[in-house]
Specification:
By secondary structure, the protein is an alpha+beta fold. The chain contains 6 helices and 10 strands; from the N terminus they run H-E-E-E-E-E-E-E-E-E-E-H-H-H-H-H. The protein has one domain: Sandwich (Immunoglobulin-like), CATH 2.60.40.
């Protein structure tokens, strides 16, 4: 909140104002039966501080507003090497016409970052009358640099925000490698081309010292999400509030999604709109 600026009047103007005030008081005659109270007026006294505007969320001394940045992308992002697959809209496909679109969450044009060697992945499935098998795949480059699956699992279709953590029995991810992750809705196992497929990339990076300091004072999921988000660690940030049930958590989640939508490449306008619609539909 910006403090209001006060401009002091020139000193030579004070006598004139004092005389005018005295003339006004001397000419005033209260009616019979009324009470007249003379007050001492300090012309140099500043107004009381303004009250904070309504609509702010006070949490442990932090102010979260609708205009706050929840996710600050890294200043030196790496472009993705894989195809940008974003099939899955509200209209058409095996899910039919749904309120929101099947969407996985991660930077679409650059490689997202995490400090976890067993990170968590987040996506959103719309409510649908018909459900289908959901496949999660994680790919890593082989010796020839060609991505190949290193972990594949089938999940049941559950609408809402889904959070999936790489199991502990899977080899820890190594820093500096572009891993691709996919979520596939198998509309018809006999016709793979009809599947809805989305893919993003991520890499493991070192944890900055400032992150440890921020996490040491964080006491809520929202504060931890903001700590990760301020360091450009998308996957760690969204994982904190993906399945939030509190008002603060939902607000932080919506803020992260809006910031992600703002970073979508111009030629992926539909993807940006899909993310915003999910943020709005799940804000409360």
């Amino acid at each position: 909140m910006f403090a209001p600026k006060f401009i002091s009047a020139p000193l030579k103007a004070i006598p004139t104002l004092t005389i005018s005030l005295m003339l006004m008081l001397s000419s005033a005659h209260p009616t019979q039966g009324s009470n007249f109270v003379q007050a001492d007026v300090d012309l140099n006294e500043r107004p009381a501080a303004l009250e904070p505007p309504s609509g702010l969320n006070h949490e442990q001394g932090n102010l979260i507003t609708e205009t706050e940045t929840f996710f600050r992308p890294p200043s030196n992002p790496k472009p993705r090497s894989g195809p940008r697959t974003t099939t899955g809209t509200r209209q058409g496909g095996c899910l039919g016409n749904t309120e929101t679109a099947f969407t996985i969450f991660g930077p679409d044009a650059v490689i997202g970052r995490t400090v976890s060697t067993h990170p968590e992945f987040v996506w959103h499935l719309p409510a649908s009358e018909t459900t289908f098998p959901v496949i999660f795949r994680l790919l890593a480059p082989n010796e020839s640099g060609i991505p190949e699956p290193i972990h594949v699992t089938e999940l049941s279709y559950t609408s809402g925000f889904i959070k999936y953590q790489l199991p502990a029995n899977v080899q820890a991810l190594a820093p500096g490698i572009e891993y691709r992750w996919q979520v596939i809705i198998e509309c018809n196992p006999n016709y793979p081309s009809q599947a809805l497929v989305q893919e993003r990339s991520l890499e493991v990076v070192s944890s900055p010292a400032s992150l440890s300091q921020a996490l040491a004072t964080a006491t809520t999921d929202s504060q931890r999400a903001l700590a990760y988000g301020n360091q450009g660690l998308w996957y760690d940030a969204i994982a904190q509030v993906a399945q939030a049930t509190t008002a603060d958590g939902k607000q932080t989640r919506s803020g992260l999604l809006r910031d992600l939508a703002a970073l979508v490449a111009p030629d992926q306008e539909q993807l940006s709109q899909n993310i915003i619609e999910i943020a709005e539909a799940t804000a409360n």
